[in-house]
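Form 7-S
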Amino acid sequence: MYAGRLNLRTLIVGEDAGGLIATTTLVENYPGFVSIPGGKLAERLLEHAAHYGVELVEERVEDIKRGCNGFEVLTRSDRYEAKSIILATGTVHRKLPAKNAERFEGRGVYYCALCDAPLFRGRRVAVVGGGDGAAKEALLLAEYAERVFILCRDESLHAEPPNLKKVEENPKIEVVNHTNVVEILGDEVVTGVVMQRRGREERLEVEGVFVAIGGIPRSELARKLGVEVNERGEIVTDKQARTSLPGVFAAGDVTAGGFRQAIISVAEGVTAAYSAYRYLTSEYVETRRCDGEP
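Output:
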């Protein structure tokens, strides 16, 4: 949206319009919206960008190469030329490192409650994770399931206070602390999990396992392009969203940062767009607060 307002000819290319926020049930910490479905928020952001002439191509980017006049963005069916690139590739769900977890994906092991919670109406399910994402998944699942277990490795659940309170007050949800899931049980579908808890091995009968253990940065394109990443695979940027490669900027969860929030990613996107504008035009746009101070 900011790139469009700055009259840059802008193209968004990606296979998942909206990213992981679009799979979030409710967003309740984005300024201006007390509560809004993640998919609706992503939709409004895209509509706002389109208002300024920004185009969207929903296709996976296979590669980005440096060319004579800038960069070439390659998809399976097309090629696009650009003078500057903003990488906002986000993260993918971290897979559960337990025996049989991959085998049962789609047959009891899932990574999106918004997508698959209705399949477990009246059933027992587990959420593996210890953060705010796990709390949100459990709260949505509790609208369908008979019983929801949050299997947390730490001593307590580390969720935002409002979500933690909702979990504690929901009679359908039980938090099981000091728990590490080591195996998924089942034949054709999931029937339970094996977990290590306080030095002992225990079994829990559930029909579904939802994994919420964080994300892995989607920085493959950045690495192939020669952009610097840290030991966690996150793109290294400065305060102007510049990467180690001139003309390439980055924003959002794919970058190195501690606090993963939609509003922070949006702010970084604004910075990246403005830095790209400065890179392409060498011009400065003066901005002032309403009180007249710069």
